[in-house]
Write a structure and sequence with these properties.
- Helix 1 crosses helix 7 and helix 8 crosses helix 10.
- By secondary structure, the chain is an alpha/beta fold.
- It is globular and about 55 Å long.
- It has a domain of 205 residues: Rossmann fold, CATH 3.40.50.720.
- It is built from ten helices and 13 strands.
- The structure holds NADP nicotinamide-adenine-dinucleotide phosphate.
- The site of NADP nicotinamide-adenine-dinucleotide phosphate has 28 residues, from helix 1, helix 4 and strand 4.
Amino acid sequence: MTATATAPTAWVPGARGMLGQEVVAILRERGVAHVATDRELDIGDAAAVDAFAADHLFTHVINCAAYTAVDACETHEPLAAHINALGPANLARVARERGAIAVHVSTDYVFDGQGAAPYREDDPTGPENAYGRTKLAGEERFLAAAGERGYVVRTSWLFGPGGPNFVATMLRLLRANPEVRVVHDQTGRPTYAPDLALALVDLALAAPAVASGVYHFANAGAVTWFELASAARELAIARGLPIVGALTPITTAEYPTPARRPRWSVLATDKITAALGRAPRPWADGLAAYLDALATTQAPRD
Ligand SMILES: NC(=O)c1ccc[n+]([C@@H]2O[C@H](COP(=O)([O-])OP(=O)(O)OC[C@H]3O[C@@H](n4cnc5c(N)ncnc54)[C@H](OP(=O)(O)O)[C@@H]3O)[C@@H](O)[C@H]2O)c1
């Protein structure tokens, strides 16, 4: 099938992931036609992506698929590159062939974390770990293949109801342990997955009237992991969720991980604010919305 879709039709690879579920939910709310794929269509497999694209009509691709296990990337970098670098390149290529808008999600981990001011879209990159290297390669290959209809949206510290995340992990640990130690010397901007999903859909539907290229999206305000965990703990207690533990701030040196984490992960979001005509809301508002949802279900996932 090679006909071109006229009404917006969005293809969402990675639709079962934490972010992908929210993108699909917003498309559904908006009444935008969409086709959802996940693991069954390996985005790193060029022939499979070509075959899928030949069989489906789409005007937009919003790529939420990725290899996101940051520590595992250190020992599985070729697999991570297959998904995080080849995958977006394949999607961008078929989108361009069909004149579709292509939106791809990337990460604050493309930066070296040594900054002191919020990172702007054109600041020099320099990933500190294998995940960041594969995501940066994905950005570059995606933009080269997508041309004037390609949009990369970098985000940071994602949390939401649709998958494992730091906040859910903290609540699980605080349910079962008297003391939970959390890193207090890494700073970033937490991002509520439904807020990012809304921005991605709005950007995709506004394109190509907004300039193509790289954008940053994160909720407003910068905190350490310890501060985020503390806020989540207080909101959970206020909502009657079962919390027995207290939090202790520690240093990164006291919590070694296979992959190095950036010390400073604060993204500047002025560019997407100008493009969408609205600023991301404070991270604490997104966190409260998430805790409200958890309090309703009483079943935080981690
Ligand atoms: N989570 C964060 O804190 C964070 C921060 C910054 C940026 N990001 C970026 O945000 C985006 C969404 O992240 P997320 O947290 O929603 O990730 P996620 O929950 O891990 O979702 C990714 C989805 O992609 C699927 N997938 C993996 N390999 C695939 C392949 N070869 N082909 C097709 N689908 C595949 C995954 O399936 P499986 O579950 O079976 O692997 C999963 O359903 C990613 O680009 C990520 O790099 C995330």
